[in-house]
Amino acid sequence: MTSADVHDVRDPGLPGRLLVVERDALVPLLRGRSAADFALPTVACPRWSVRDVLAHCSAALMRVVEGRFEEGVFSPECNDRDIAERAEWSDARVVDELERGMTEAGPVIAGAGGALDGVALGEWVHAGDVREALGAPGAYAGDGLPDALRLLTWLTRERRLVPVHADVDDVDEPLRLGDPTAPRPPARYIGDAATLVRLYAGRSVEGAGFELVGVEAKELNIFG
Question: What is d(CA 124, CA 23) in angstroms, rounded to the nearest whole number?
Fold first, then answer.
């Protein structure tokens, strides 16, 4: 894996590439799954089943594709309405919409100047939530991990999060996340990439072996 160190210039194509890579891995995993699999609960989103997470993801991406950003968009109430609107859909139709959204959202995100980059990362994280619920390998990892780390690094800098130097397994150089101009000294993370993603996504890290010094985990949540 190559270094995902921070760059000063936004890569507008990065979110779309991440979505396409995850589409090519996730959609085949979902095809042919049983109704019982879609009904499984997710640990990261306790109120939502696998199907609910997928419906939320597909709806969010189609909002991006179609430019539907009314007041309160992406709020918990909006997300619940989007899921409810798909309650009568077949599982296959939900997956079809997700596949379309992951295919078509990239160019729109690229042209939004960075305002929608976090949507792509959120979709990738939710794919990890689904994999975890299904007991499938690659949760918060897989082929999209290098692009996800690059996007995470960029977003933490843009949002001026706490500076963190992360020594990540299988990454050639330390990742420098967060605001490089912050007056506080950088915190330090040592561990694997999937656990780093879990920390920044507010997911459980119970049982994971890692070291985090100089910052509380709750300060890292990029979606909080």
Answer: 9
Tell me how many helices (H) and strands (E) the chain has. 8, 4
Instruction: Kindly tell me if the per-residue pLDDT of 3 is higher than 90.
Output: no
Q: How confident is the model at residue 4 (pLDDT cuts 50, 70, 90)?
A: very low
**β-bridge pairing 211-213 and 164-168:** unpaired
Q: How far apart are CA 146 and CA 127, in angstroms?
A: 15
CB 125 within 8 A of CB 197: yes
- Residue 202 and residue 217: Cα distance in Å, rounded? 8
| pLDDT per position as a tens digit, 84-98 | 999 999 999 999 999
Distance of alpha carbon 192 from alpha carbon 198, whole angstroms: 10
* Spatial separation of the C-alpha atoms in residues 174 and 76, rounded to whole Å: 35
DSSP secondary structure of 128-181: HHHHHHHT-S-TT-STTHHHHHHHHHHHHHHTTPPPEEEEETT-SS-EEES-TT
Residues in the chain: 224
